[in-house]
Write a structure and sequence with these properties.
By secondary structure, the chain is of the alpha+beta class. It is built from seven helices and four strands.
């Protein structure tokens, strides 16, 4: 980001975030480019959203995020933050123990997918760092290793169950599977 863009960022209430235009237009108040907002989510991670056509729309979204963050009880926010900092391998091992409805054969199959496909690539990654790019890179790594489509789909489905569980619990703010094309196995 250029120095000019940084100086054009509008600061609001401390902790609320900022909104700005990232273009290099000389008269930014009249240019057609969208506003960008930047803020820290409840887990403390910096986020950016774009596509706000007016200052008021950007300010309204910042206000909404700020109010959500302020209305979240401190203990709940701390739990979400701790969950987000947890390593994927650790979270996945606790996830499988919580799946009491799984039959023993299903647990063995999931553990095999963990150990052969998922954990070698993602074990040390923190939960709050999962994005659509990470998921796409995971799929590409399986393709590069010539993993069969059925195994790719099983690994993807298992990963999706675990990561979406972490998202439901508040460890991830945005859906990391949004826009990702899953591997398709057609028997």
């Amino acid at each position: 980001m250029s120095q000019e863009t940084c100086t054009l960022a509008t600061q609001l209430i401390r902790g609320m975030g900022s909104f700005f235009k990232s273009c290099d237009c000389s008269r930014q108040s009249r240019c057609p480019h969208a506003y960008v907002i930047r803020y820290r989510d409840a887990s403390g991670r910096q986020c950016e959203e774009t596509g706000y056509t007016t200052q008021q729309k950007a300010l309204d979204r910042l206000t909404q995020v700020y109010n959500e963050k302020r209305n979240t009880p401190r203990q709940q926010a701390d739990l979400k933050r701790e969950l987000g900092k947890q390593r994927f391998g650790e979270y996945a091992s606790t996830w499988i123990t919580r799946q009491r409805h799984y039959a023993p054969g299903s647990v063995r199959a999931v553990n095999q997918v963990f150990n052969s496909q998922i954990l070698p690539i993602l074990e040390s990654r923190r939960i709050n760092t999962f994005t659509s790019t990470v998921v796409e890179d995971f799929i590409m790594s399986m393709e590069e290793r010539s993993v069969g489509l059925a195994s790719q789909q099983n690994a993807f489905d298992t990963l999706k169950k675990i990561v979406l569980d972490a998202r439901r619990r508040g460890g991830i703010t945005e859906d990391p599977f949004d826009g990702v094309i899953p591997p398709e196995y057609i028997p």
